[in-house]
Description:
The structure holds two protein chains of two kinds.
Chain A (H helix, E strand, L loop, with lengths): L2 E10 L7 E9 L3 E5 L6 H9 L6 E6 L2 E2 L5 H6 L2 E4 L11 H11 L10 H4 L18 H12 L6 E5 L7 H16 L3 E5 L3 H6 L3 E6 L2 E7 H5 L4 H6 L7
Parallel strand pairs in A: 3-8, 3-9, 6-7, 7-8
Antiparallel strand pairs in A: 1-2, 1-4, 4-5, 9-10
Helix pairs in contact in A: 3-5
Chain B lengths: L1 H28 L6 H18 L4 H24 L7 H23 L14 E3 L2 E3 L1 H23 L1 H11 L1 H6 L4 H26 L11 H11 L4 H18 L10 H13 L13
Antiparallel strand pairs in B: 1-2
Helix pairs in contact in B: 1-5, 1-6, 1-8, 1-9, 1-10, 2-3, 2-4, 2-8, 3-8, 5-6, 5-8, 6-8, 9-10, 9-11, 10-11
Amino acid sequence: MSTVLSTNGLHSGYGAGDILKGIDLALDEGRILTLIGPNGSGKSTLVKTLAGLLEARQGDVLFAGERVNGWSPPRRVKGGLAYVPQEYNVFRNLTVLENLRISHEFMGGGRGELLPADLAALFPDLPSRYATLAGNLSGGERQMLALACALTVRPKVLMLDEISAGLSPLLGNAIFKTVKSINARGVTVLMVEQNAIEALGISDVCMVLAGGRVRFCAPASEVLGRDDLHSLYLGDTRDTA
Amino acid sequence: MLQTAFNGLISGVIMTLPALAVTLLFGVLKFPNFAVGAMMTCAAYLVFALNAQLGWPLSAATVLVAVAFGGACILLDQVTFRPLRGRGAITLMVASLGLGFILENFARFAYGNTARSFAIELARPFRFLDIRMNREQMLTFAVSAAAMVAMWLLLTRTPVGRAMRAVADNPQLALVRGIESERIIRWTWFITGMLLAVGGVLIGMDRALEPPMGSNYVVGVFGAAILGGLGSPFGAFVGALLIGVASELSTLVMPPNYRIGIPLAAIALVLVFRPQGLFGQPYIRK
Lengths: 241, 286
């Protein structure tokens, strides 16, 4: 299985200091990798850097065999590296249809269908909401729309930053099921999650970040079975080696 | 009374295009461009050069200058505002004040302070429902209405228009949806330039051409854009009509030289009671 997205010694951050301090990551094609870790560990900073919203100060970002450090966010997304931010992930003043259309148009979809047929089947409720302003959708509907927008051109890798944040457990589970179905249709997934147990339940690999460094990386099923799982993402990483 | 209201409607219609330009630019770049007045003045003088000095028909001169001025605005942005992007709205606003000062005085150096007018045939006003109206007023109404419809079609029916609304809504999300924001900013300046050029010509037809002609409208234009809701094109249209009619009607009860107080009062009331304006969205700093 080939690696589709990787980093070597990645440093990034805001202002003067680095938040990421040498991240080595490797995401194999077809897998779901979940990033967990305490608040401030650099999870969101990492996906923002991978999406091109933050500059890599040191190290390499490699996507589909190419070094993409100098690529702008639009170039990355057109190359197949899609990203769904944690908040404000839909255009609230545009309708559902306009959100899908603009994603399709600018992510390189050409004149084809707004969503590939197999992926459109995962969002059966969206067509009935086409005329609704995205800002008037419920939290769950909004996350589904954000997912659908990122999928309009079938990305190679889908990066999700806390896609279940703020949702009820029921809706959160529905989102995770959808993510699993997206992955089953050939899209590699990188997730940042606070709902670690539910996320690891659908994941292949778990990576734990703390203090801007990778604490460890292991199969998700192995991490899920650990007694110290809660301490891993709440911040106690003393005995994880 | 009816005649005064009609005059106010025309004053409002004249302000719709610059108000739209202000709101469009604010939506995408999040700063108030106080150079709009001087930009309209410069564009109007360019049309004057082609029309009155070289003998071109006013319509052809306006179309050519609108396109050229759209391009000029892209250049002005690259030179003036682009190097300052990311430094906040206040910095850009101050830069726009400076740019306006330079452009207005550029027009003054070129043409002096003497009032001039376009080479258009004078036509006798006509009456309808006891309201006296002239050909220029009808033309102003038709051009503004056509420009509004064109803007609506652009913003809702074309990829560039949708992208402009997307960048205005959430610039960072726009980037990860594949939208090159600099390209959209160039489009925004181009359209802004065209709107201001046509707006300048409409003002020049209504009044005389003189260096402060555009600046005289700045308070009214900003009043209209703020009343309608900065960032809302439809709001700019409604705001301009309301400000125009209210300003004109105010002359029935107070001296005409105090009518500048109407847009100022509208700005003050909106900021106190409904900061997002009539049709704008509350602005949340993220």
